[in-house]
Amino acid sequence: MDLGIAGKTALVCAASKGLGRGCAEALAAEGVNVTIVARTAETLEATAAAIRANAGVDVQAVACDITTPEGRAAALAACPQPDILVNNAGGPPPGDFRNFTHDDWIRALEANMLTPIELIRATIDGMMSRGFGRVVNITSSSVKAPIDVLGLSNGARSGLTGFVAGVARKVAPNGVTINNLLPGIFDTDRIAVTFDAAAKTQNISVDEARKQRMATIPARRFGTPDEFGRACAFLCSVHAGYITGQNWLIDGGAYPGTY
């Protein structure tokens, strides 16, 4: 299927690896020129080179912290008028809510709620004026089914979800959509760290920890960044113009609810 977005421009956050990279690669494969952002310059440049070699599109790499005003300014200077915006940032640490400080909450809100909103605010009018725009926010399955130890993430990402629910309806008449992708367990570096910690806590091997977690997923496997990226690319396509304000759960069937 031709997604109809060749020649468009995209700003993809936290795209040097994992789910962000999967999204950048999928968009580039469709002929989209991408600006990718991440904090570690060396990893980011390696990813940019790989995408250029594989897709033959224009790829800009901006090493910055997108959760800061300076980082957002640098990203928007490189890609001031994107047709596609993919918001993404690492989640806050787990813990007991009783131990979270005010500063912990502010950091979580800055990264997982306010930064996406600031980037949407900076780019949405341009999208509306051109009659086409796609915003995809990578959030978490915890928005659908809260995870008790991820109180910071539950709160911050739910705040972004509520904001999107309102603004998506306002911009829809101008050909702009805003949707959220909610990943479950995906085979990335981040989850590898989680399994390493779980293995030490339970005094089992990392492989056993992975198998135990995989058994709880109806698909009996973890997701891949490649398939996540393809879902993102479809939401950014011309074929998805009638999909907006939605929360797409991608978790292999782990969420047990009907709705």
Task: Tell me what you see in this structure.
The chain has 259 residues and is of the alpha/beta class. Helix 6 packs across helix 7.
What is the number of helical segments per DSSP (H or I, 4+ residues)? Answer: 8
* Mean pLDDT level: 94
List the secondary-structure elements in sequence, H or E: EHEHEHEHEHEHHHE
Please identify the structural class as seen in this structure.
Answer: alpha/beta
Shape: globular
Secondary structure elements and pairings:
Blueprint: E1 9-12, H1 18-29, E2 33-38, H2 41-55, E3 59-63, H3 69-78, E4 84-87, H4 102-130, E5 133-138, H5 151-171, E6 176-183, H6 189-202, H7 206-214, H8 225-235, E7 247-250
Parallel strand pairs: 1-2, 1-4, 2-3, 4-5, 5-6, 6-7
What labels would you give this structure?
259 residues, alpha/beta, seven-stranded parallel beta sheet, 8 helices
Could you give a quick summary of the protein structure above?
It is built from 8 helices and 7 strands. With 259 residues, the chain is of the alpha/beta class.
